[in-house]
Amino acid sequence: MPIAPAPTPWAFPHHSTWDPDDDLVALGADLDSGTLVTAYGLGLFPMPVTLDGDEQLGWFSPVERGVLPLDGMKVSRSLRRSARDFEIRIDSAFDEVLAQCGSPDRPDGWITPAFRQAYGRLHRLGWAHSVEAWRDDELVGGLYGVSIGGLFAGESMFHRERDASKVALLALVELLDDGHAEQRVLDVQWQTPHLASLGVVRRQRGEYLEQLEQSLRVPLPAAFRMDD
Predict the structure, then answer these.
(1) Banded pLDDT at 227 (limits 50, 70, 90)
(2) What UniProt keywords apply to this chain's record, in alphabetical order (predicted)?
(3) Which of 26, 64, 72, 137 has CA atoms 20 to 30 A from the CA of 43?
């Protein structure tokens, strides 16, 4: 099981006080492991925000949350064929996946060095994981996220070859489909046109929070359990 981090000293506002029309619900706190685990369990995730020229740590809970139902991923025949061309590995190159997702060359990049350090710590404690697509012993795509009980909170993904990130996502869906699929939540933060094409749907914040509460009671997927 994951190693419990030190408790966070921060208290997040109760969801009943969140602005119903604003995805951003809090500012401040830190990226310590205990803070992150607490936040994800409450339906929040961090991103840097700039307000009045000052960069701050923002905590988001989208009014319309992007969720990929485990029985709803749209898999084309070409993607099925592509999947046969890659080897899937779990947590074999987490730091490299994180570095690729946080590459300064990517437009609208938000994964700062502080975020990379924070999620690296979460990974070493057993809370953050990567699903990787390899070809010829080279990492060519993947994704990473935070896994708490039945929640997998996807953070970002990358690809160096066509379909590599999609294949990693397909592999994640398949490993989460383990007998607890109806209780699991695969959260992708926001629905984008690209993610919608893969089957991501929108959930109202209240509905998402209800699903989240149930999912946290579900055991971790076997692939993400640390050795005893």
Answers:
(1) low
(2) Acyltransferase, Cytoplasm, Transferase
(3) 72
